[in-house]
Write a structure and sequence with these properties.
The chain has 244 residues and is an alpha+beta fold. 34% of the residues lie in helices and 23% in strands. It has a five-stranded mixed sheet with strand order 1-7-9-8-13, sandwiched between helices. The chain has a four-stranded antiparallel sheet with strand order 5-2-6-10, covered by helices on one side. Strands 3-4 form a two-stranded antiparallel ribbon. A hairpin with an 8-residue loop joins β11 and β12. α3 packs across α5. The longest helix is centred in the last third of the chain and has 33 residues.
């Protein structure tokens, strides 16, 4: 079995499989982007989130926070009405556990057929403001590009016993700040989609060119046909922890 066969089988299996995310479907702001990526012959989406504003109660177990055990009080993948957000916070069940307001930005994982496509995804991500993006190369040759940024927000609203520590005005203020970040986040997604379509139109023979080396001024130059002139700076990692 060649790597080409493996990639095509992995793509088919992934796209035909169940969506195991909490929401169970692709977020509306990502529908066109995901459709474009999944229809491309050399890449497909593994997981994604368009970004969200969440108020949740953390679950404590052995002094470590377990994401799987958190109680979700309210969640929005678009801007959240401040008054509605405070209403959800103030009418929550009064249990122990720190209640936190979070803004989590866009994240996308794309499996690519080769490093050429992966670097194109990375280039589009970096030029769109997703500076925390990177590439993962698995031991079996699985290549994944992760698109992500660092402009998140996390603010505790109660103590660990669940007692309110902030006012209504403060909760609504933080929600407004989260909405501003959400707006910027959605604009970056649009820019990323445009950039991705642009870089994918570039011919591969224009991306990879011979690189000239000089041993010294007196000796003749030679060409290394196997190296690229403009290699994108990218963060190569062994693996990713994919969002649940």
């Amino acid at each position: 079995i060649t790597m080409v066969d493996v990639f095509d089988k992995q793509k088919s299996s992934c796209l035909e499989g169940l969506d195991l995310s909490r929401k169970g479907s692709i977020d509306a702001p990502l529908l066109e982007l995901a459709d474009y990526i999944n229809k491309h012959n050399d890449m497909f989406t593994l997981s994604s989130c368009s970004g969200r504003i969440v108020i949740l109660r953390e679950s404590l177990s052995s002094e470590k926070i377990r994401k799987a055990g958190c109680e979700w009080i309210t969640v929005s993948h678009t801007e959240l009405d401040p008054s509605e957000g405070f209403e959800a916070f103030s009418t929550r069940t009064k249990d122990s556990g720190c209640v936190v307001l979070k803004f989590e930005p866009f994240v996308l994982h794309v499996q690519c057929r080769s490093m050429v496509e992966a670097k194109q995804v990375h280039t589009a991500a970096s030029e769109s403001g997703f500076r925390n993006s990177g590439l993962s190369v698995g031991k079996a040759g699985k290549i994944v590009a992760a698109v992500r940024s660092t402009h998140g927000l996390e603010v505790p609203l109660t103590d660990d016993e669940g007692n309110d520590m902030v006012s209504k005005e403060y909760v609504e203020y933080v929600i407004k700040k989260s909405n501003a970040k959400m707006f910027e986040n959605l604009e970056r997604i649009k820019k990323f989609e445009e950039k991705l379509k642009e870089v994918m139109l570039i011919k591969i023979d224009k991306i990879i060119k011979p690189k000239e080396f000089y041993r010294n001024k007196k000796k003749k130059r030679f060409v290394d046909e196997n190296k690229s002139v403009n290699e994108d700076d990218c963060d190569i990692m062994d693996s990713f922890n994919f969002p649940g």
